[in-house]
Amino acid sequence: MSAYSDHIATVQARFDAALAATGHEAVFIYAGQPRNAFLDDNAAPFRVNPLFKYWVPITENPQSALYYQPGHQPVVFLYQPRDYWHATPVVPAGDWQQHVDLVVIDDINKIPAWLGERLSKAAFIGEDFAEPVASWKVAARNPAALIDHLHYHRAVKTAWELDNMRHANRLAATAHLAARDAFFAGASELEIHHAYLAAINVRESQVPYNSIVALNENGAVLHYDNYGTQAPAEARSFLIDAGALYQGYCADITRTYSRENGFFQELIEAMDTAQQQLISEIKPGVNYLDYHVSQHLKIAKILSDFGFVKGTPESIYEQGYSSAFFPHGLGHLIGLQVHDVGGFLANDAGETISRNERHPFLRLLRDVEVGQVFTIEPGLYVVDQLLEEFAGNADFNWDRIAELRPYGGIRIEDSVVVGVNGDNENLSRDAFAAIQ
Ligand code: GLY
Ligand code: MN
Ligand code: MN
């Protein structure tokens, strides 16, 4: 059996269980279609429904769909418009074609005719803002119980998914090295962004999220994507958070660089060590929140060691000082989406775990399980808005913080596959090692 045939067997079994548990006979998954901008006839780039590409690596064929009834082979309706305005999307080659009934359609109105009564008995999963799908008679539209069940289980990846994520990480690592070289060559943020895309031969709509390409102070803006067009006179530091896609699966990697050897380089090295120590602690059965707290304590120690804040790691954490420097979550599930959903699900019955009040931006609160893939992305930044709360606090060394401000901040992000007994796989570091 190929890795893909094992994968689709797992997906099929997960759908069988989800449909049975939620009382649905069958499912119809619409790949989706691009949305036009307001009062405009130009569409935003197409993003395929993640539960469609879970079955088949078809990501560029809007208005395609999949019908699945337990006990039967899935049917893929591949939309190939007869249209002289656009290039016809190609039928992606691959093993998947041997595991589905492939029906090529040039008009989606042919789907109800092909399925007949079966469509009205199926749960519909997908966006339905447009006709004709908006008016189709179906058994249910995006039933939350069914979707939650599926999202809960897809946190654990199949071998085929892991292969795709390894590949996506190698692409991202290749592009990251090109971006790093462009930074050291003195490029602007926009030029670095272009170097990243060119290194892996993709356009902007073909990376999983807007790349964060930040020089100097901009590194402190967590979702910075302004891309300055002029290189600053002095480019001291560079933070890049950028990914890649392979067969619909995402990589999400962050690296930070210092132009000079000196205290900022030492701080990067300390953060890098702290991130790797944290990854070595990860074991099945422990709640992800515990790792978030453990990473806070390591960052608190760095804050004290480098003289930014006074106190023990515990006191720095308890007083909320470390949250002023590390204000986001430790990481998130990743796979078909850069932020795979399901991080708040307590079980496959759809019960949820409330956001943690102390750490509201942490979007993974589940227990760690073998086969889950998530990111580990600690950060340390000078965010003045957050530091204002501590103005005048003598535990803070404001002169030392002022030295760090021109460098923005540091984030280091890898994706980790949870192994048995802590035998974890670091997809991102392995990717850099494989290509260097
Ligand atoms: N690149 C988005 C994130 O790291 O979560
Ligand atoms: Mn991330
Ligand atoms: Mn990221």
UniProtKB/TrEMBL annotation:
Q: Which residues form the Xaa-Pro dipeptidase N-terminal domain?
A: 3-152
Q: Cross-referenced Pfam families, in alphabetical order?
A: PepQ_N, Peptidase_M24
**Where's the Peptidase M24 domain?**
164-418
Biological process terms in GO annotation = proteolysis
Its required cofactor(s), as named, are: Mn(2+)
The entry marks the following residues as binding Mn(2+) 1, namely 252, 332, 377, 413
Q: For Mn(2+) 2, which residues are the binding ones? A: 241, 252, 413
Recorded catalytic reaction(s): these are: Xaa-L-Pro dipeptide + H2O = an L-alpha-amino acid + L-proline
Q: Please share the entry's free-text remark on the cofactor.
A: Binds 2 manganese ions per subunit.
Q: This protein's superkingdom?
A: Bacteria
Q: Which GO terms describe its cellular component?
A: cytosol
Q: Name one GO molecular function term.
A: phosphoric triester hydrolase activity
Known function: Splits dipeptides with a prolyl residue in the C-terminal position.
What's the name of the protein? Answer: Xaa-Pro dipeptidase
Source organism? Pseudidiomarina indica
